[in-house]
Design goal:
Length: 251
């Protein structure tokens, strides 16, 4: 059994929430949801691209289609993600005000054998808290991450770089298909905590700050997520913020 909680917040600056999360096929772009879920399952967060058309619809549609996946160990998840991309593109061409609408996608799936998987397109993130240590599982598909990988800048320099918001791979881009990053994590263990979040959170809080809040076992999962979001807002986040966490076994 997995305890799951998702919260999304418009943040302190943006007039519209273009983030969304999905649990048990239910997609929300406001408020929070708590649920116990059983494997196999797939959950996710998405961040609509504000500089393009109809980002809110892009994120919602992406997660709606993700929820339709009947995930199993035999699922060709790369093909499924590319199908979602195609459907978002098609919607954009057929509906006024939606041409080239785009979104990030970060998802976590567990198959019928208890193996976990990360699925990432863009700069939303997945972290795994295991045995008291937080590890970033996904890699941002961004221009600044490319510079970090090439040794041109440091991770600390990313937050102030002029091109820090340039995302290289997204769902729905009319000209460039996404490059889904899919990883098999292996067997999930009792007590594992998986965090999915949009860059309104991860772009403001450091890994150490996120780890410290998540390790506060005296607080409920929902309270910890609320603390992450409020800390990001007080720390200067100017974006929508979404956090979704899953705990394997008893919290």
């Amino acid at each position: 059994m997995y305890s799951c909680c998702g919260i999304t917040d418009v943040g302190a600056v943006r007039p519209e929430n273009q983030d969304a999360f999905m649990i048990n096929k239910l997609v929300l772009s406001h408020s929070q949801l708590e649920s116990d879920i059983s494997a196999p399952f797939i959950v996710g967060v998405a961040d609509g691209v504000a500089s393009e058309n109809n980002g809110a619809k892009a994120s919602h549609l992406c997660l709606e289609l993700l929820g339709n996946i009947n995930f199993r160990s035999t699922t060709d998840i790369n093909r499924k993600i590319m199908d979602i991309h195609t459907n978002i593109r098609t919607y954009g061409t057929e509906h006024d005000g939606s041409l080239n609408m785009q979104t990030t996608l970060c998802a976590f799936a567990v198959d019928e054998n208890g193996d976990g998987y990360s699925i990432n397109v863009g700069d939303s993130r997945m972290y795994l808290l295991r045995d008291g240590e937080l590890t970033q599982i996904t890699k941002d598909q961004t221009f600044v991450q490319m510079l970090v990988d090439s040794g041109e800048i440091t991770i600390d320099e990313c937050k102030s770089h002029v091109n820090r918001h340039m995302v290289l791979s997204v769902m729905g881009n009319y000209d460039d298909p996404p490059s889904p990053e899919i990883k098999k994590i292996g067997k999930m263990r009792d007590g594992d905590l998986v965090l999915l979040c949009t860059d309104g959170l991860s772009g403001t809080l450091s890994k150490d700050e996120i780890e410290e809040i998540l390790l506060d076992g005296k607080e409920s999962l929902a309270r910890r997520l609320r603390t992450l979001i409020s800390t990001a807002i007080s720390g200067g986040s100017t974006d929508n913020i979404t956090a979704l966490a899953i705990i394997c076994g008893k919290d």
